[in-house]
Amino acid sequence: MQEFDHIEAIWAQHDVDVKISADEMLKQAKKEVNSIKTKSLLNIVGMALSIVAIAVLWLFFDFKSITTHIGISIVILAIAIYTFILYKNYKTLTNTDFTRHPADFIADLKSYQIQRYKIYSKLYWFYMIALSIGMILYFFEILMMMSVPMQILTWVITFGWVVFCSTLVRKAVIKKDKERITLLIDKFERINNQFNEPK
Length: 199
Description:
mainly alpha
């Protein structure tokens, strides 16, 4: 078993130089960039649709309490601000043509990665706090119409969902984003190096 571990350690240290053509690497990288762009765009569209859904709810239901109106306003504002931040982050990725300016695109990718980390770390907590305050104010009127067991069930499900999204889902998204973008940056740096190598 020790021999196997020793061979595995030697193999891990051995740097295999696999030459992939710059065109093939560029094709793979382009596919990954398009995948990230599509995912980001779908996220933005989803957030925008949730604003529309909440606004429709607000318009067609006759809420009596001022706290409900304030709560819905806070929720819509929080989602709108977060959507705008996601859109700005998306524009960072789409502003540079990586086939004409690979070095600029690598810088944009690094900037995109830092912005994504901020979105899912510091900014996320402001978003969740604003969303939670809005939901509490919104639920104030709605819960008064429910029985006590339904009120408790609503609070437990809502709180559980917020905790689940804020811990497990958020951490998984941060890790996956970081790995994916780091790999993409590495690919573009290798592509850039291959193009800049003297013939």
